[in-house]
Automatic annotation (TrEMBL):
Keywords: Signal. It comes from Geothrix rubra. Residues 1-21 form the signal peptide. This is DUF4352 domain-containing protein.
Amino acid sequence: MQPLILAALLALPQAPPPVPASAPAAAPEASAQPLSFYSGSFPFIWDRTLPMTVNLDGLKVTSIFFNRRKVEPGFFNIFKGAEFGTRAQVEVTNTGKYPKVPGFAVAVLDKDGNLLGVASGGTKLGTVKPGDTETFDLNFTQVKERLSKGDRFLLAIELRD
């Protein structure tokens, strides 16, 4: 449910609710780390690698790929042709000097701007070390059957060092 809310917020800009003048300002959390953030909109193509040129503080997104996971022939033949979910596969390279901890959110929209599905993911343990290239599988769950009819996708990245 949270990825759906995030996608809806990315797709529909909303102004923050007014704060009464007498309300005290919220204090920042002492343990919160500032996050680098990126958000963009791109043309969507199903089942084809899309080259990307996004660079967020030394983390370069080089490509994204949308498809259904299938077991390839010859790999556990009893599962041959079986589907195991729908994904957005994001490839990144850390060109910076420090390890990165990325988080990703993807929302797919049709030509009328209707939301077709959302996925999110990122580093669960560890980091993307300087010079390393890694691929992240972002899973679409529940609402995913119309993804192949997408027209645009939104990509959001939050990055911690």
